[in-house]
Amino acid sequence: MPVIVSMTPYSKLVTMIAAVGGNIPGISRPLFNLLGSISLHGTPISGTERLLKLAKGGIPSLFSVDPQLVRSGYTQVVVDVRGTGASQGVWDVFGPREQKDTLEVLKWARTRSYSDGDLGMSGYSYSAINQLQAASERPKGLKAIFPAAPMTDIVADVVAPGSGYGAGFLALWLFLVNSTKVVPDLPRLLRGQFDPKWLADRINHPIVFVPEYLQGLTTPSVGDLRGRTKEIVQLQSRYRKALTTDAARVQVPTFVLGGWQDLFTNMEWRALDQLSGVPADRKKLVMSTGQHVTNGWDMGSRNEP
Prior knowledge:
The chain is α/β, with parallel strands linked by helices. 39% of the residues lie in helices and 12% in strands. It has helices spanning 12-21, 28-37, 49-54, 67-71, 96-110, 126-135, 154-159, 167-180, 186-190, 196-204, 210-218, 227-233, 238-242, 265-268, 271-274, and strands at residues 3-8, 75-80, 119-124, 142-148, 254-259, 283-288. It has a six-stranded parallel β-sheet with strand order 2-1-3-4-5-6, with helices on one face.
């Protein structure tokens, strides 16, 4: 059977916890249905209702191992990208080294004994963006992708939307990734194993991309930027090119989930046009009314996707 690959910067430990908590027989599904039935309309916290309904729509399975895929015979592989979670190295933040890693993981997964040589990819946000990056390189064996909340121009959508500076989101996001990457591999620790190289990498590179973030926040003009921060805004720099994906090169069947109020909506609603290399009957787009963390809150009910 095919292998489904997900590349995440948020730690496989989070994936494991989500998979266990979301699939407790006789408990998880009734709980999700109960939360989804709660109405907070007219209350001061009405905005949180979307979070309550999120699990019912099935989107959280994109952050974890999907038991339905496994029961259907698929193998699902979740990998911490370089420098995050339990992986060694330095986080490259969508850069050339990380993109090469993704292709190497796909090749590795394709050649496992449990694989029939066919691959798929799934995931949300970061794990959706690197799907498009990988698919644009047309790796052998990749048959389909399911990017939920993707984007193809990281600078235009997040770093400098509308020629401004996405300081608010970037601060929270960098804190999240740099915090979760220092949590050790607990399953390995329980087996009496520890990776000293992982610890050395975390000590030597504790706050990846934070210096660039602060430079962007404090530098008065673009002309004063330096180093990798300057590369981000230089259209012809190697790193800037790595942050832009040519979706027209994607040829495999693609199902995109987006949101009209999503942070990445600039690409999402244009996805079908950007995926010009995929025949019309092999590309689908569903747009939720949610925001970036609540896409899919309005799904899973009768007459809904």
